[in-house]
Amino acid sequence: MSATRPTLKLTHSGALQALDGALRKAEELGVPQNITVVDEGGNLLAYVRMDGAKLLSRETSMSKAITASSHRQPTSRLDPRNEIKLAIAGGGRLTNLEGGLPIIIDGHCVGAIGVGSGTGEQDVEVARAGLAAIGAEDQKP
User: Fold this and answer.
1) From which domain of life does this come (predicted)?
2) Rounded average pLDDT over 60-65
3) Considering the domain boundaries, does residue 5 fall inside one?
């Protein structure tokens, strides 16, 4: 049995491409957003707060990205019965709010994108545009 395995990594350039795709969709919708892109370990790679985006949505966009990366699924899929327990256990960093999507490439989760400041549907639409910009798989929430 091998002690290592090859992995795919989301690059800074890839994170910026995802961010750009999401920004373009947010501008098209006319909804200023906070957009966060993290790697597979939940580490920040790229972030923007568009002019007019809600200040506290900075925190929710980060939590959405971390949750989607950690659970390798859209944020809206967590069992609602466990939401509070997970939030406490995760130091307040986990959320079930819509708008967090894992970045899946060739079947591997390489990170996630979290979007906040619009409605849940708008946040998901903007996040999906970020996935499309880098050719990532889209897991429907």
Assistant:
1) Bacteria
2) 97
3) no
